[in-house]
């Protein structure tokens, strides 16, 4: 409709009393397009109709901005739990995750938060001052009270989300702090293991001492006939109580359900070099799986795959030393 009405204003009025066919066969000398003459009132009606059709077939600017804002928010909601888990693990001195992966994830979260904040500000300022027009969007109309209230609420909700999650984002330890924490954790584990071994040794000594005393007492005291009635009743009570505890443990195990997200690597990678050695082929596959897991932000799977790769590399080195002494 727009292209159909584009050349009407450029046509010259003619005083001739032509037929209807002559009115419909007016040709534009610049574009060689066919047009027809209308009066001013008809032109206003046609333009109004053209605007209505355009508004129905295209999305408003507010709708486009809001869809983009929700994309940023859903991405943050997916990345934030992973980052918090990685930060807590690294702060505790664990070796499950890599510090570099955590730093890259933090930068991605901060960048996404900036994009969400800028989009929320665009929504708040939409229609104020100048009219905003985006590609494929209908032109803005003067704001009403309800639309202005809606834009303010969207901005306030987004600001609250950023304050709650981005500003309170836990910090990552530095490389030296991580090494110190890991060393302290290792020393504590060694001390705890030594204490457990010492406690076990003392318990064994006490148990052996008790057995020696019982043997000595049994040799010194006369033999007594055991009570058959009490011994016969004891297994029945134990047997009757055993199924209850077993069923209770089975019930507890059945109640503990672990939900997995179901992520898995592509088992047919296109860029993996095939070799005759199956162990080298498996290591190449693991490297490709690690790359896929990093791209999918599955850093828990990255840690597991890297551990498997290190174990396989160690086994391969042992095999090579045996084959080439």
UniProtKB/TrEMBL annotation:
Residues 278-319 form the Rabenosyn Rab binding domain. Residues 197-277 are annotated as: Disordered. It holds the Pfam family Rbsn. Residues 223-248 have a biased composition (Low complexity). Residues 197-222 have a biased composition (Basic and acidic residues). Gene3D superfamilies: Rabenosyn, Rab binding domain. SUPFAM superfamilies: Rabenosyn-5 Rab-binding domain-like. InterPro entries: Rab4/Rab5_effector, Rbsn_Rab-bd, Rbsn_Rab-bd_sf. PANTHER family: FYVE-FINGER-CONTAINING RAB5 EFFECTOR PROTEIN RABENOSYN-5-RELATED, RABENOSYN-5. This is Rabenosyn-5. It comes from Penaeus vannamei (Whiteleg shrimp).
């Amino acid at each position: 409709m727009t292209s159909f009405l584009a050349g009407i204003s450029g046509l010259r009025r003619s005083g001739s009393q032509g037929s209807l066919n002559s009115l419909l066969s007016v040709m534009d000398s610049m574009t060689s397009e066919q047009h027809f003459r209308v009066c001013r009132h008809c032109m206003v009606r046609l333009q109004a109709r053209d605007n209505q059709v355009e508004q129905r077939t295209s999305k408003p600017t507010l709708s486009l901005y809001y869809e983009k804002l929700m994309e940023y928010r859903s991405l943050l909601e997916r990345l934030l739990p992973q980052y918090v888990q990685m930060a807590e693990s690294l702060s505790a001195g664990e070796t499950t995750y890599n510090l570099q992966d955590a730093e890259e994830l933090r930068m991605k979260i901060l960048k996404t938060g900036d994009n969400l904040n800028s989009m929320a500000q665009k929504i708040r300022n939409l229609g104020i001052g100048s009219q905003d027009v985006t590609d494929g969007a209908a032109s803005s109309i003067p704001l009403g009270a309800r639309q202005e209230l809606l834009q303010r609420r969207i901005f306030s909700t987004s600001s609250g989300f950023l304050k709650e999650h981005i500003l309170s984002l836990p910090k990552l330890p530095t490389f030296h702090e991580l090494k110190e924490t890991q060393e302290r954790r290792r020393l504590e584990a060694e001390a705890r293991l030594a204490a457990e071994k010492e406690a076990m040794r003392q318990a064994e000594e006490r148990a052996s001492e008790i057995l020696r005393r019982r043997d000595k007492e049994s040799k010194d005291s006369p033999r007594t006939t055991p009570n058959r009635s009490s011994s016969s009743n004891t297994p029945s009570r134990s047997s009757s109580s055993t199924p209850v505890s077993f069923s209770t443990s089975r019930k507890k195990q059945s109640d503990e359900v672990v939900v997995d997200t179901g992520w898995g690597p592509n088992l047919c990678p296109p860029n993996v070099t095939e070799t005759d050695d199956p162990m080298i082929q498996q290591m190449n596959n693991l490297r490709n799986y690690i790359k896929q897991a990093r791209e999918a932000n599955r850093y828990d799977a990255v840690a597991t795959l890297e551990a498997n790769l290190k174990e396989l590399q160690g086994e391969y080195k042992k095999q090579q030393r045996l084959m080439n002494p």
